[in-house]
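Notebook, student rotation project (T.W.).
Task set for the rotation: take a protein with a known small-molecule partner, predict the structure of the complex, and write up what can be learned from the model alone. Partner molecule chosen: magnesium ion. Sequence and SMILES entered below by T.W., checked by me.
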Amino acid sequence: MLMELIRIENLYFSYKTGTQTLLEDISDFALCGIDLKIHSGEWVAIIGANGSGKSTLLKQLNALLLPTKGDVWISGHNTRDITSLRQIRSSVGMVFQVPDTQIITTVVEEEVAFGPENLGVSEKELRERVERALEITGLSPLRNRSPQYLSEGQKQLLAIASILAMNPGCLVLDEATSMLDPRSRENVLSTVRKLHGEGMTVVTATHNMDEAAQAQRIIVLSEGRIEFDAGPTELFSKEKLLSDLKLGLPYPAKIASRLKYLLENDPATLLTINALSDAIVMTLQKRGVKG
Ligand SMILES: Nc1ncnc2c1ncn2[C@@H]1O[C@H](COP(=O)(O)OP(=O)(O)OP(=O)(O)O)[C@@H](O)[C@H]1O
Ligand SMILES: [Mg+2]
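Predicted structure of the complex:
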């Protein structure tokens, strides 16, 4: 049975503080009545327009923000419980859009070691964790560099390595690839795929539909509420919902819908380049075109 890692019940959050009893107007809330469970090993993408509440929701997952109303539990620990903060922060690692804000030390290797060192792990385990994090992110050759001389993509990989060294059960990425060039973006995404393949829970907020389509489950936020929660194929087949929420299709599905006259497949099932090219080849073969 899948273990419940994150449980959110009737979560309301307002950035307006000090006047919480006066918060009658629903527009005062960045999150309005969120109910959500995420199980261990899932990859969940959170999408929605600017200001829909994605970052606010993600910040609730490691107690950077606390509910105004309702509750958030991480591995059974309520985020309001200050004595659980350390456990919560070490089980949910968060990477933001701008990596500079997270870099603390002057050497890549030390940066990766910084978090677990502060947790007080043994020297042997520290070395192992740092090696593994550098290896999985491909940063080993840059271990002695100063983080300030890394490229943006390498800084983002460093932010991920630093989080991984903390051994979190869940990796939360808030638009972590949005400023990266295509190759760096693919590096980050392939690292995420690798980690997810090894059993890590992944929660990503993104505006990129191709990225969202890689998740097993997509949650659409609109004005602080969950408007949709199911798999990518289901979402991308809902034309009206997509148009109401001003969401696009992943590129392969866009091409597939342009090729409707040729392909029998539902574009919502063609979410990757491989799926699209396989469908085109099959169709051409059926029509007697030889490769
Ligand atoms: N620090 C803050 N103080 C006050 N209001 C905030 C703060 N941060 C966000 N908000 C408001 O909360 C709402 C949700 O913002 P949030 O940053 O969660 O949206 P988002 O979905 O992450 O948007 P984006 O796609 O632009 O990153 C918005 O109305 C925003 O203006
Ligand atoms: Mg955001």
